[in-house]
Amino acid sequence: MQPQPMQYGAPPGGGYGQPQPMQSGLSERMEQCQKDCEELQAQIEQLRGDPEENHFMAASKWRIVDCNLRPVRDLKGHFGKIYACQWNSDSKHIVSASQDGTLMVWNAFSTMKVQAVTLRSAWVMSCAFSPSGEFVACGGLDNICSIYRLSDASSDGTNLKLAR
Question: Which helix (H) or strand (E) holds 29?
Fold first, then answer.
């Protein structure tokens, strides 16, 4: 049996409110959707009520510990904002990238600069050591990623050569 097209105007027999042939399938689907929504709402309420199942609610049960963090060492030498720094895998050195256009490698224990690299652009936003610690890389808003070999430093620790 094919569905009847929707009729416009008053239905035969004169009154509104009686579903037309195409509307009967639609009303059944609407009722099913309402039941589905009610079931989903019940599931949501059940999850909200059980904090062990809801990780966001369970987090509110945790006690917040007051941390008294304070600096251990201050590494001073940049003249601009520092945008990134990273520890080397040897846990002794740190590389930092600054808006002053320099990349600095620090000895974290002595707080001394080990090497400084003058960059081509001051728009550096990130820096990282290679896994071996032999290279440092930096990149920024100039769309250039530069890699420097740390072992190519001059005697004063500046002007590292760009690794190609």
Answer: helix 21-49
Query: Which has more pLDDT, 106 or 43?
Result: 106
Total Cβ atoms within 10 A of residue 96: 21
By CB atoms closer than 10 A (0-12, 13-18, 19+), residue 102 is buried
In the numeric block, which tokens belong to residue 142? 């100039």
Residues forming a β-bridge with 129: 136
**Cα maximum dimension of the chain:** 103
d(CA 86, CA 31): 59
**120-142 pLDDT, tens per residue?**
888 899 999 999 999 999 999 98
Each residue's pLDDT tens digit, 85-109:
999 999 999 999 999 999 999 999 9
Tokens coding 77: 């030498």
